[in-house]
Here is the input.
Amino acid sequence: MAKRVMSLIVALGAVIATFVFLPASTASAAACAPAWSASAVYWGGGSASYNGRNWSAKWWTQNERPGTADVWADQGSCGGGTDPGQPDPSGFVVSESQFNQMFPSRNSFYTYSGLTAALSAYPGFANTGSDAVKKREAAAFLANVSHETGGLVHIVEQNTANYPHYCDTSQSYGCPAGQAAYYGRGPIQLSWNFNYKAAGDALGIDLLGNPWQVEQNASVAWKTGLWYWNTQSGPGTMTPHNAIVNGAGFGETIRSINGSIECNGGNPAQVQSRINKFQAFTQILGTTPGSNLSC
Here is the structure.
């Protein structure tokens, strides 16, 4: 009898051990809550996603970043598949999750897929130098883009009274799409007939004849922004791309976009707005902003 009981105990122990130590099947990751926004107000129990994880507010909070403030309770990973905080399989140093954190209120036109599809036009963008420099350039571009578009909200220039002013009739090719057709569009608000001509020629797209493509096709819109960033010095002395990869600093990217309108005391509040966004974006990407932030 004692042997029989002992055998039953041993058998039961084996069953328990098997139950305890068998690898659990992989559960599906939770869906991500809406991306955390520094400007949003969260009440106790409110949820947000940040860096590929869901968070729940313990009490009222605003501008307290999840993972850095005790007000947030970690609810676990979200999104499924690869860690959404990791670089995208395309090789871009900004993941879709991070992109959504940067632009929580963006217009649906400005898709992440449109941006990654546009990267092939300028393979050196955010892909030159150390990992820190690559992330710094991506943050610098997206910070300036955010400033130009109100957080990727505006697709076209809001002041319609300016529209007829962007036709330089002295150009031999004129303004075939109409005098008022070359207003600001896209992430860096491409404007003027000569810029549409130059960008279109570089990208192999007829933007002079059909500038509306920039407000109708997300990939085209992103390509025009990357065209300016990588090839144009504007009122500055270097391209924004070179300003970052050669160590001139974020301030020189501002100069290349708006020159004395903002730099050298032209509008310090606007400069600081760009810097603030750049610092926030470098933090999201886990890199440092470097030196020479202002112009």
